[in-house]
Specification:
It is built from ten helices and six strands, in the order H-H-H-H-H-H-E-H-E-E-H-E-H-E-E-H. By secondary structure, the chain is α/β, with parallel strands linked by helices. The chain has a six-stranded mixed sheet with strand order 2-3-1-4-5-6, with helices on both faces. Helix 3 runs antiparallel to helix 8 and helix 7 (about 170-180) crosses helix 10.
């Protein structure tokens, strides 16, 4: 989804730039010239190389990390759950600042080297450019963490979308895996799914997107954790229709109350099925077995009213 560049720490970037700069300077010194001209030319090339590496890496971060304006509503809200918006914007601005400072310093240093012709002028450039980069070290490390979050975002398509919802451990992941063949991890404990997982299925040449959302508990919105809020976002922004799976081994009433909240407060239409694990079904809701592919396919067709 996102094409994000490698983000170095400040020390790694300075070390790489200075190392490559030294190599470039050595090559230039090896050319046959009078000694003063050779040393001056060497320092000029050294400064150029160091600036190119530092500015290249910093500019790539600013260019390829998405701004809030580039994100969809779903991505923007999902990012809000995982990182602080102001900190994200501030870190990108800090990296842009360091890039501009080093770029301006390079121009000033090269101008002085060519007019004053003192090779020692490059030493000031090395010290100040390293200082600018190290001032944004915390921002670079923060953006390394943000990169992991952005790359974990689901890859979405513009297709009819079914969001599978319900309490933790109701059988949502089992349904999605058996319906789509997706390699969704299954575990016999609550909150198995902590991220939004995507599967796809074709029916009569049309592709459908199946989203396995994290489990939600029936409680006030302000008490829900980040994992639950991801499910709410998927339902609100992505669902054309939702499938609410009831776990008969858990208390039924709060599950149906949650279902009603999704339907009424989020304005979504959907179907409710009990995952047949045994247990009670006091409301006589329709049943299916999430471990059986044929059952899952039947429920999918009914969700989209497909014959």
């Amino acid at each position: 989804m996102f094409s994000l560049p490698h983000v170095p720490t400040a020390q790694d970037l300075v070390d790489k730039a200075f190392r490559q700069g030294a190599k470039r300077g050595k090559i230039e010194r090896g050319k046959s010239r009078m000694r003063p001209d050779r040393l001056l030319s060497s320092e000029i090339e050294r400064v150029k190389q160091i600036s190119a590496i530092i500015c290249g890496d910093l500019k790539a971060v600013v260019k390829y990390y998405p701004s809030y304006e580039q994100l969809t509503d779903f991505q923007r809200h999902l990012l809000d759950l995982r990182v602080k918006k102001d900190r994200y914007k501030k870190s990108l601005a800090a990296v842009k600042w360091a890039n501009q400072r080093v770029s301006n310093l390079e121009k000033k240093t090269l101008r002085k080297l060519k007019t004053i012709k003192d090779p020692e002028m490059s030493r000031e450039f090395l010290g100040r450019s390293a200082s600018y980069v190290k001032q944004v070290d915390k921002d670079l490390k923060y953006l390394i963490d943000v990169k992991k979050i952005l790359l974990s975002f689901p890859t979405l398509s513009d297709e009819p979308t079914l969001v599978v919802a319900g309490f933790p451990n109701a059988g949502k992941s089992t349904f999605t895996r058996n319906l789509t063949g997706s390699k969704v991890k299954i575990a016999p404990y609550p909150f198995t799914t902590t991220d939004i997982l995507i599967g796809r299925i074709k029916h009569r040449y049309l592709s459908y997107q199946i989203i396995d959302s994290p489990g939600i508990l029936e409680r006030p919105m302000k008490e829900r954790n980040t994992t639950e809020l991801q499910a709410v976002l998927a339902l609100k922004h992505l669902a054309d229709v939702f499938l609410f799976i009831v776990d008969p081994l858990q208390e039924i009433r709060p599950q149906l109350k949650l279902r009603d909240e999704i339907r009424d407060q989020l304005g979504k239409k959907g179907l409710t099925y009990v995952n047949d694990k045994g247990g009670k079904n006091p409301k006589n809701l329709p049943k299916f077995n999430a471990t059986k592919k044929q059952d899952c396919e039947r429920v999918f067709r009914e969700c989209f009213d497909l014959s």
